[in-house]
Amino acid sequence: MAWTVTYDLDEFRAAAGDFLGARPARHTTLLTVVSSLVVGGSGRYGDQPPVYGWWTGQGSVEGAFLCTPPYPPLLSPLPDEAARVLARTLAGNGERQITGVNAGRQTAETFATAWTGLTGAMSAVEQNHRLYRLGTLTPPDPAPPGRPRTATAADRELLVTWYEGFARETQALMDDVGAQVDDKLSHDGITLWELDGRPVACAGISRTVAGMARVALVYTPPELRGRGYAGAATAAVSRAARAAGVREVLLFTDLDNPTSNALYQRLGYRPLEDHLVVSFTPAEHTVPEQGHPS
Prior knowledge:
29% strand, 35% helix, alpha+beta, four-stranded antiparallel sheet
């Protein structure tokens, strides 16, 4: 049993693609980041080359990770032994600066314990997320006034402003906001809720991978909140995904935000599992770490 580590995306996909695709909900972030790298190239998230790896257990792949600096490594659910061995593997390679980890709760905690024990670093939970899966969609009733429409290139300037607002409010680490918007627009991945010809909220969705797509970057400008627009946009993008044949429609919420958690459950989303983003810093430094935007 061992980790294989590579800088070659094609090699990683050939080795771990079936493993990731067999459980698309559990591997949602890994799958969507790989999809973005295939489309946007290895520089999609930063100047440093991404690194990938897979854990081979009893003759088959039983775990995977990828890291796109400056974001922390993304880990699939891992056996405890695999998480500990990965910590040793990454700690032993001085070329990679590992400042955190992003994974399901148990895997993140096991990796963090191993990492701090090996390196003496301090650890802190920076984000506590819950992954939801859509069951029976229940749109808002009554619905707010307005209608949905798919965003186009003509909406780009407004969307960049909104994505920047989202990043400020959530303290999300976002590489190039314009590139994020362009990527979503390239696959009709943003739905606007429009009132009297004016966009009042948006909801994005990832590319469909292995029958799965994930709603992300739901945003309403502060002055327009409390009117149901975000819920309507989320219901619209979720309905469109289902109509397009997406089998598993997912989304993450911040567990510190009870309003959004309650909203998505009213729409028919059901809890699947919790994820942590944990930061690692030497005792004399404090560097906040953020989860992956894709």
